[in-house]
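Escalated from tier 1: N-(5'-phosphopyridoxyl)-D-alanine holo job.
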Amino acid sequence: FLVNINGTLLKGPEAKISVFDRGFLYGDSVYEATRTFNKRPFRIDQHIDRLFLSAEKISLEPTYSKEVILSEVLKTIEAAPFKDATIRIVLTRGTNSDLGLDPALSGPNNLVVFTKEIKPNPAWWITDGVSMIFFQKKIEASGSLPKTGNYQENILANREATSRGAYDSFMINTHGHVTEGTTSNAWVIKNNILFTPPLADGVLDGLTRKALLEMAKRQMLPLPLVEKSLTKDDFLSADECFITSTTRNVVPVTKIESHLIGNGKPGALTLKLLELYLEFVK
Ligand code: PDD
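Tier 2 regenerated the structure:
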């Protein structure tokens, strides 16, 4: 790990932040996870824009400009020896002068940029695919979600999955619609149509998702793409299923609960979409 705290580059173990930081105290922060391909950051402007949109949704007024955040990210990438790296940008509301929720207690934001070498996806994700379970969310959420430092429900959903031997959970909102994975967007293919839940169902505006929507618009996909609310049954009866995230690209899902998806092997269209996606973004 190489870590940049408020402009200072530090090795992982030396990187420390105050215990009065509001991200630590209350999860009062926003974050982004992106990556580099051969030192080139992936859609970094879109990631910084999304960071600011998340901040706006929780009334966190950035004391850093987009330009400064971009230059700190680039400085960190430059200083690190990694070609393909994960980049995490964390912006907290700041360090409190006393305990208390009032944002007026906070000093300026803390900006932390982490970078770490990215490992290639495990080969079995492509040969076998991953398995998922369903997780019922309790917190009502609608509209495009902010990416904040409070991932409690997602952590519970992921824990539940791993404790049951699955890779992750597809989360279900309080209206019974499948929204997304705990750190990924959700997709199914049925009768040669690609479906993904709409942002309005309480979904993060994922940038991998956005790239696939862009490809569909430019007629670069081998099948039509439809944004539509989806139920558990839509997932269980799908011909193919996959998840997407910036760091993992497209990952085939071959089992949900105890049901095999399609023939239980990664779908041909899913693998084609992975190939087309990588060509598009690399
Ligand atoms: N997470 N949904 C949620 C809840 C996420 O946390 C993420 C990303 C995504 C996918 O978005 P994108 O395509 O922009 O990566 C969807 C990252 C990987 C993380 O938290 O590490």
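Helices lie at 22-26, 44-57, 66-79, 123-127, 152-163, 207-217, 232-236, 268-281.
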